[in-house]
Amino acid sequence: MTHGKYERYMNSRRNGFSMNLYRNTKDKKIGGVCAGIADHFEIDHNIMRIAFVAAVIFTGPIAFWGYFIAWIVLVPKSLSDRELSKGGADKMDYEYDEGERCYRRKKMFRYRRSTSERLSRAKSKLEKIMNRVDDMEHYVTSNKFNLNRQFADLEK
After folding, report:
1. What percent of the chain has pLDDT above 70?
2. What is the pTM of this model?
3. Crossing angle, helix 45-59 and helix 61-73, to 10 degrees?
4. 87 vs 133: CA distance, rounded Å
5. How many whole angstroms separate alpha carbon 83 and alpha carbon 21?
6. Which of 15, 38, 56, 60 lies at a C-alpha separation of 20 to 30 Å from 91?
């Protein structure tokens, strides 16, 4: 590998391969690989561990060697957090999560709902907003608003 390719690989590795793939050393049992992959897919750590044990039973050493390679390739989460505090946060890929209404690290599988369901939810939200705007317009143009404003002016 040339020096430039190696640097790009190491930067990508430090940033979780732009998919939030890390070893979770905080919640680890052995090396943190199962916990890190479970964090990536947002499932319970124990479910991933059970899936790994099942993979070892059915595939034998293939799953074991896969775990070992992932243990070498994936950066521990605590190390990546230290690097982020040094100013590497701008290198992380973020996306807006509609359900949580905040920005989260980019995941391999971005959305939990289908496109049509997300569009229908957006349409219903817009309809609610339009109804509120209509109610405000109706109130502001009513005689009740003028009367309330005149009372407020008298209290000053």
Report:
1. 71
2. 0.47
3. 130
4. 43
5. 15
6. 38
Burial code of 48-60, b = ≥16 C-beta within 10 A, e = fewer? bbeebeeeeeeee
Distance CA 64, CA 57 (A): 10
Axis-axis angle for helices 33-41, 45-59 (nearest 10): 120
CA pseudo-torsion sign 112, 114, 115, 119: negative
pLDDT category at 133 given cuts 50, 70, 90 is very high
DSSP string, 62-104: HHHHHHHHHHHHSPBHHHHHHHHHTTGGGGS-EEEETTTTEEE
pLDDT digits (tens, 9 = 90+) for 5-15: 777 777 767 66
CB 98 within 8 A of CB 117: no
Question: Do 36 and 48 form a contact (C-beta atoms < 8 A)?
Answer: no
103 phi and psi, to 5 degrees?
-90, 135
Type of residue numbered 48? M
Q: What is the pLDDT of residues 81-104, one digit of tens each?
A: 444 444 444 445 666 766 667 776
First-last CA distance in the chain = 77
